[in-house]
Amino acid sequence: xxxxxxxxxxxxxxxxxxxxxxxxxxxxxxxxxxxxxxxxxxxxxxxxxxxxxxxxxxxxxxxxxxxxxxxxxxxxxxxxxxxxxxxxxxxxxxxxxxxxxxxxxxxxxxxxxxxxxxxxxxxxxxxxxxxxxxxxxxxxxxxxxxxxxxxxxxxxxxxxxxxxxxxxxxxxxxxxxxxxxxxxxxxxxxxxxxxxxxxxxxxxxxxxxxxxxxxxxxxxxxxxxxxxxxxxxxxxxxxxxxxxxxxxxxxxxxxxxxxxxxxxxxxxxxxxxxxxxxxxxxxxxxxxxxxxxxxxxxxxxxxxxxxxxxxxxxxxxxxxxxxxxxxxxxxxxxxxxxxxxxx
Length: 343
Ligand SMILES: NC(=O)c1ccc[n+]([C@@H]2O[C@H](COP(=O)([O-])OP(=O)(O)OC[C@H]3O[C@@H](n4cnc5c(N)ncnc54)[C@H](OP(=O)(O)O)[C@@H]3O)[C@@H](O)[C@H]2O)c1
Known about the structure:
seven-stranded mixed sheet; alpha/beta; 343 residues; Quinone Oxidoreductase, Chain A, domain 1; binds NADP nicotinamide-adenine-dinucleotide phosphate; six-stranded parallel sheet
């Protein structure tokens, strides 16, 4: 059987500057017959990730491959199997894998770096497999706070991009471990959600000119752990007021992705505040991931961990959803679902 599909492709590279939906095009293509080892997937939910920003610069030194111009953008998604020439996968199965941003996607994708796994039967909502239970969501937050950051009860943890996907979960996980948590977020609405809904102890506007003074007032002696999702000037300010010694876990640097002059952090506070600085991804902790997922499922079921999602609908919504990450449009995980996701 042969199929055609609509797909989202990249029209031009953008080394620096603000991503716009116009940098992408929706087109149609014919899919060749499935070969042995291939699976035809119908995506139900697409993960919209800031990490993609590094794949649309044209700079091959990024840790993930560049998206070739005119070809489908790839990312992580939850899909239903339509047809399979891979033993162990059958039509109707639900899986988590890399997918093309398309109505129909052939697995493995062009840039294959993630294994296909069955959707865990405990996960009822496809979007949750990408957010709170996802590799680039809850598992990133968990490994950052527990494995890399080793947050302890009684410590003070500062989280940047705190109302986003990873940050909202990282802050809650630190709270579950008994830490005091201060979130940094860009709007009053987001800061209210952090303190009133997610149990953060305080939330600050990272754009405030007196951010350093506000942090010092809230944490005499300084924070013990900084969970950094943004980098740049905000991170410089936080590192300058940290306790001695203290830890910084670098999850991401979103403030620098559009602006290659934004990396203003100097390492003086590593010396003056005795900081340990560690970058990481959850794949560095493979042995921790099964238990991490068990904890996340348990915390959500018992109401200790609240997943937040900004859900948009349909393939055409993907470019604007991605651009929206850099405008702070999302609260929690940015996800794009298709009609089938509700079935
Ligand atoms: N290490 C890993 O394995 C791993 C895995 C997943 C994600 N990440 C990284 O972690 C970071 C967060 O990812 P996410 O998926 O959780 O995204 P996200 O936080 O859900 O979305 C991005 C948020 O970042 C904030 N933001 C955007 N531009 C900013 C800027 N210039 N300065 C400060 N804040 C800005 C916005 O919130 P405001 O309204 O508050 O500004 C926006 O809502 C990203 O840097 C991403 O690349 C790393």
